[in-house]
Design a protein that fits this description.
about 400 residues, alpha+beta, elongated, Sulfite Oxidase, Chain A, domain 2
Length: about 400
């Protein structure tokens, strides 16, 4: 019975994970990992509508993945003995054993590395993103092969008994499974200590408990305090000047953590627009004098948290006009920060979307340094890390 929710839930986790990789625009070489060889998926342009699309796919990938952990552990409890039986007899049994080894190893690797990455910054001695991506494909291949081999058995097992009758069976009437040809039933089982109803309740209750302490990080709002498994603990400190204010919402990387020197962001900051006949320099007063637009947009992080705020600033398409490139093919946004997230390339649709902004305010107040002061990009459905903070240059490209 544990196989059925996994058969439904794991494909959702797989598909949303691959979609999230596509959201980083691999056509620009900025998906992580970028060089995946023959594992590269066909490119398609990530849409800007609905604005909550990345929030949905990433929330499902992380949230559902965590909710399924108790089910996975319960299923592993029943199949792990299979790994330690004698050599398989025949090519079909050998293929089944291989798929099981790769399936168990793959899902344990994905769960452990995924949970560690959510909670901690770069604790691995290797690239988490490359390892997680390759590990996912190993698991996918094993999962597909195992389903093809075992689906008929699972269907027959589900049809052979009534779920209602099983749930009504008391402990006194609970008997061991009859011997099966696949060797999953112990030859000399101990007396039962729990009903099948109790086992389902234990695993289902565990999954519901994980859901209760996880979903708040994706749904946000009043449910945010219920997210006890907050990714990396990135919340505003209770004694911070931002606590309870307009800038009081999660942040993946603070100003201090970015390593930016305080002198790099001063009152003399200006934005440079490139790509036109000549560079255009805009100070904050110049940007404030341009038409302002306000949009309510979510920002969603690869660690699974998201938060919807009200952003105000200048439309990117208005900045493209000001730069002399009214129909850009793409745009490259650069930050004063250094490192892998110091730049992001946006597609034409992302630049020209009516709610794509260079934001200078959030929730009616000036951006704090942690949230990108003096200006940051905010684009519908864009992964959070590509909503570049501390922007200094935007280059609009014609090709």
């Amino acid at each position: 019975m544990f196989a059925l929710p996994l058969l439904i839930g794991l494909p959702i986790v797989i598909v949303t994970g691959l979609l999230d990789w596509m959201a980083y625009s691999p056509q620009f070489g900025q998906s992580i990992p970028s060089d995946v060889g023959f594992l590269r998926l066909p490119f398609f342009e990530w849409p800007v509508s609905p604005s909550w699309l990345f929030r949905l796919t990433e929330g499902l990938h992380i949230g559902l993945g965590m909710i399924l952990v108790p089910v996975v552990l319960a299923k592993l409890w029943s199949v792990i003995p299979k790994l330690f039986t004698g050599p398989p007899k025949g090519p079909v049994r050998a293929l089944e054993r291989l798929s099981l080894v790769l399936l168990v190893g793959g899902i344990l690797f994905e769960i452990v590395t995924g949970l560690l990455n959510i909670q901690y910054d770069y604790v691995f001695g290797f690239s988490f993103y490359l390892a997680h991506f390759v590990g996912a494909w190993v698991f996918i291949a094993a999962f597909v092969l195992h389903v093809l081999l075992k689906l008929p058995t699972m269907v027959r097992s589900l049809r052979s008994r009534s779920l209602v009758r099983e749930l009504r069976t008391p402990l006194s009437a609970t008997v061991p499974e009859p011997p099966d040809v696949h060797g999953l039933v112990a030859p000399d089982p101990d007396p039962p200590t729990m009903t099948r109803r109790g086992a389902l309740a234990l695993v289902g209750g565990g999954a519901l408990f994980v859901a209760a302490i996880t979903l708040g990080q994706t749904l946000g709002g009043r449910l945010r305090p219920t997210a006890l498994l907050l990714p990396r603990g990135r919340t505003t400190a209770p004694d911070s000047t931002e606590a309870g204010g307009p800038n009081d919402f999660p942040v993946n990387r603070t100003f201090v953590a970015s390593g930016i020197a305080a002198a790099a962001i001063t009152d003399g900051w200006a934005l440079t627009l490139n790509g036109g006949p000549s560079p255009v320099r805009l100070e904050r007063a110049d940007l404030a004098a341009m038409p302002q637009h306000t949009a309510e947009l979510p920002i969603a992080c690869v660690e699974g948290w998201s938060s919807t705020q009200t952003w105000t600033g200048v439309r990117l398409r208005d900045l493209a006009v000001a730069a002399g490139v009214p129909e850009p093919a793409s745009a490259v946004v650069r930050s004063v920060e250094v490192g892998p997230f110091a730049r992001a390339q946006l597609t034409q649709a992302q630049v020209l979307a009516p709610d794509s902004l260079l934001a200078m305010q959030v929730n009616g107040a000036e951006l704090s340094r942690d949230h990108g002061y003096p200006a940051r990009v905010i684009v519908p459905a864009l992964p959070g890390v590509h909503n570049t903070k501390w922007v200094v240059i935007i280059e609009f490209r014609r090709v």
